[in-house]
Amino acid sequence: MGFLVPAFLAGLAAIGIPLLMHLRDRNEETPTRFPSLMFLVRLPIRTSDRRKVTDWPLLLLRALAVAVLVFAFSRPFIGNTAEVQADARAQRVVIALDRSMSMGHGGTWAAAQDSARALLDALGNDDQVALVLFDEEATIAQSWTRDRAAVKAVIASTTPVSRGTGFGPALRVARSALISAPPGRPSIALITDSQRSGLTGVAGLELPAGLPLRTITVGEVTRPNTSIRTVEARRVVAGDRVQLQVQARVLTRDLPAARTAKLTLTLAGREVGTRSAALAQNGELTVVFDAVAAPSSAVDGLVTIESDALAADDTVHFVLPADDALAVQLVAPDDVTREETLYFERALGIGRAPAVRVERRRPGTLDAPTYDRSALVVFWDVAPPSGAAGAALESWVESGGGVVVLVGPRLAERRSALAGVATPGGLADRRAGGGATLGEIRDEHPLFTPFRSTQAALMAPRFYRYARLDAAVGAEVLARFDDGSPAVLEREAGEGRVLAVAMGLDVRESDFPLQPAFLPLMRRVVLHGAGHESTPLWRRTGESWVPNGLRREPVIASPSGELTRPTTGGTKPAVILEQVGVYGAYEGRVEGTARDRVAVNVGPAESDLTPADPNELLLGVGESADSTFRGVTAATSIELESRQRLWRWLIAIVAVLLLAETVIASQGWRGRARRATIVSPERSQA
Amino acid sequence: MTAPSHERLLDPALLARISDLPLLARTVVDGFMHGLHRSARKGLSLDFAEHRQYQPGDDLRRIDWKAYARTDRFYIKEYEADTNAGVLFALDVSGSMDYGSAAINKFAYARMLVACLAWLSQRQGDRIGLATFSDALVEMIPPSTRHLNLIMHALGRAQPKGEGKLPLAIDRVADVATRPGIVVVITDCYDEPTSIGRSVDVLRARGHDVLVFHLLDVAEEEFPFENAAVFEDSESGLRLPLKPDELRERYQTLWRAHREALEKRFAAGGVDYVPVRTDAPLDLALYTYLDLRLSRSRVR
Fold this sequence. Notes:
The structure holds two protein chains of two kinds. By secondary structure, chain A is of the alpha/beta class. Chain A folds into five domains: 2-78 and 645-685, no CATH class; 83-222 and 610-640, Rossmann fold (3-Layer(aba) Sandwich), CATH 3.40.50.410; 225-320, Immunoglobulins (Immunoglobulin-like), CATH 2.60.40; 326-529, Class I glutamine amidotransferase (GATase) domain (Rossmann fold), CATH 3.40.50; 539-603, no CATH class. In chain A, the strands form nine sheets. Chain A has an eight-stranded mixed sheet, with helices on both faces. In chain A, strands 6-5-4-7-9 form a five-stranded mixed sheet, sandwiched between helices. Chain A has a five-stranded mixed sheet with strand order 28-34-33-30-31, with no helix packed on it. Chain B folds into two domains: 12-18 and 21-34 and 83-299, Rossmann fold (3-Layer(aba) Sandwich); 46-79, no CATH class. Chain B has a six-stranded mixed sheet, sandwiched between helices. A two-stranded antiparallel ribbon of chain B has the order 1-2. In chain B, strands 8-9 form a two-stranded antiparallel ribbon. In chain B, α8 links the parallel β6 and β7 (209-216). In chain B, α8 packs parallel to α10 (244-268). Chain B is elongated, with a radius of gyration of 22 Å. The termini of chain B are far apart.
């Protein structure tokens, strides 16, 4: 038990006030008027008696109220007094050191190390420090210690990593470090180049109220930098050959002067092209390399630019996936003409990554080998098989296959369910009214997401005749005509899905094939139906990667050659991409060609070295009365306040005492005395 | 619902709520007179009222012999009550009168008393006047049958203040009240009985009948204060720190001695002395006054 403000205890001298009040003639200022004192002046008066305390209970009550009030103002403290005293002296500093890629610019890292050492040297012998290293993520590199040499050693052995910057994780880890801190005066020192991009994720972060957060910004104010922001690589058809077209976007910031830089394209470890780019002081430039011959298999490459002060962002790795065409089985009835399916087949034939290879089939010719080498089966106005063949189709769908049923006039009158997704209910003829349009589209669905900003393109086509569909149980309507009839339905089955499309794909039934949205939507229907996800050329550090094509004993080789054998636990293996370069996934042993590969680069935001004002960081950080802080960092105002709640009770006691004083002083003979102590006429007559 | 008793009607605490003095006086006097025998209102006087035939039992001395000579019949000569008696109310308006521990203070009681007496006198046909005083005369309204309204207004604006010097004030009243009559002094008698007595003797010597109403507050009699306090004289402002509980008995002794001295001195001077407590009904004072008024008539 102690007092936070013991100086207030001097206020106990105020107890003398009620004592003096009781000793003095309290009625001196408000005398009792009396008609005449002609008789009283004749009487001898002993004035010394009036200096005695005559009302001890009231005096003690008032003195007690004053004393309790003084104690309340002295802020009594419940807890370990030694802790409180230590709290006033010892510092508990979390040094959060930025080791992101941008810290490697010029002498920024050396300045950061010097700042951290200077901070350590300024601490006293009783002070303790914890070191948090952070980039996109943060980790406690050194727990609480008085050994400053150990902390300096950790700082010396640390180098910038190829990762982005995130102040949010840094502050969260620093806060958690403070929870385990010994009692003392806590604070956080953030040593960073204060990249504005690092502010992402700070909003909503709360630190204990009153916790000092000091930001030490290192690095030059203006840091010139040239970086390759992104790389695009795609296969193009040139005559009968497939070539690789690569282009890179180069970003320059704060260059002292415009200059020319050389960019190099390397594929499969071999330099295949160079380009010279004239760079402005500030700006963005797209550099297109000459097309080169490309294998159909996956190929990894990199684009580099001449090194500058920050070399880490001068190279971008990428892996171009194999040119595996998507096999689509188009099952059409015997009476269908080539003109009917012309637009659909042409639409699928255009486009790469992936290319779509359409195989035309007659109904009833689908078998297991066909399913195995197919990604999607499209039934063109013909019913999917039933019975045993239907069961095989359903089994294939559940294992990841896709089915699209295009419902036209032939199927419109069929009153039985189609692949469990929809039941036709007749043909709607809207030719008289100029045709129907799509009235409702689930633009949040992956099928329509690419059209979210151009939804009008999907509303433009006119549909003259279309089948009225009823959604089967478990099917979801993704789009409707303007009369409410479903236009697109989907049923998910296992890892695959079944789509039913009532939109006429024939120019006789609608003008949709002539509309701009036709080609991308058909391609989207096929890719979505086949469950195909586009593979990015590269991923960012910190992302999780799930390799494809691994069936047993997965082995992941990092760019530095480290091998990781992730445990799958019944699911696909996943690995966190820590390093910049190309990761390879193998089965059993690392030999031969990797089953899957992925390129990893630092996020382009890290190359933006624009500094933020430290106040912006502080503005984003809120204050909280974090209960987990209780008992750890007694020095915070919240903690002190929580331990001093006794004063509130004391104030309440004072209020009760004063209330009691009021009641006592106004009752009995005291109350009569205050009211001039006049007796009533009845009493006088008695 | 029972009718209010006569005593209740004259309760000073109740009457103090009536701010209109003429109304108050009329209410009190009418109520008071209602309880008296009507014959008491007619008395002997030098002012002829009417003749009536002699009836057996009448005083033979009251037969109008001149009327008998003219008419050969016995007539009894009747007279109006005293219509030419002058009544001067001398009201103490010193600061000590502004004191009251009960519902009404001494000055308010005195003002009601004067108003009622004036109204009563007016109904008797007396000439009435008013003199207010503290250490000297404050206001003087000579006795007249037409001065009732003036008196009421003067009472309404009178304020108790200043130091009182009762003997000196009575001397001044004696100077201005040259025509013999009745002088009714309403005061709290805060002065030496011998000094007051000497001044009253002067009034008596000039042919006045003197009636002194000594107004008392219960706190003045009993001194019921208990806590130590500073007491301040209402007139002089003198302050005394006192412990009343220790002084009470001695104070009451002095007070009783003062009262007894006043009684003896006034009795010796032929002055009617009536102590009146402010919590007592007004009828006590009215009876006393009416008794004095009638006895004076009998004397004439």
